[in-house]
Write a structure and sequence with these properties.
CATH superfamily: Ribosomal protein S6/Translation elongation factor EF1B
Strand order of the largest sheet: 2-3-1-4
Distance between the termini: 71 Å
CATH architecture: 2-Layer Sandwich
Helix content: 25-40%
CATH topology: Alpha-Beta Plaits
Number of helices: 4
Number of domains: 1
CATH class: Alpha Beta
Length: about 140
């Protein structure tokens, strides 16, 4: 058994209340191939680094943002191809990537966002003293 991580982008046209059903389709593809879920993170909307497009039937979607999420799972290596084939059939998925991963989850988007917020708050606390207070401190 090997541990893998499936990172995915979901089209922004999917309503937030329907997002869980798309994630369920992804998890179903994993369980259908006899994979065992280990960890995951709820997808959230995020701007993309560049514009992407996807054709679904007669429609072509060009997007600048997407829902991003991931699922870590354990499976026998030959069955990865089954998951890949099922992922290609999910029309709401813009892109996906399957990579080998360590069993322990070191990075999550939630941890990264919390670290960024903490850094921003710390920077706001460090305020420059008004010129008059600096002048008085130098004179004393």
């Amino acid at each position: 058994m090997q541990v893998y991580e499936l990172c995915y982008l979901i089209l922004p046209s999917v309503a937030e209340d329907a997002l869980s059903s798309v994630v369920d389709k992804i998890k179903e593809a994993i369980s259908k191939a006899e994979g065992k879920d280990l960890d995951s993170e709820t997808p959230f909307k995020h701007p993309l680094a560049y514009q992407m497009s996807k054709s679904v039937g007669a429609s072509k979607y060009v997007v600048n943002d997407a829902y991003i999420g991931w699922i870590k799972f354990e499976i026998e290596t030959p069955k990865i191809m089954d998951i890949e084939a099922d992922m290609k059939k999910i029309s709401e998925v813009l892109r996906f990537l399957i990579v080998k991963a360590p069993r322990k989850t070191e990075f999550t988007f939630a941890k990264a966002k919390a670290a960024i917020r903490a850094k921003e708050e710390k920077e706001k606390e460090v305020e420059v003293e008004p010129a008059e207070e600096v002048k008085e401190a130098i004179i004393e």
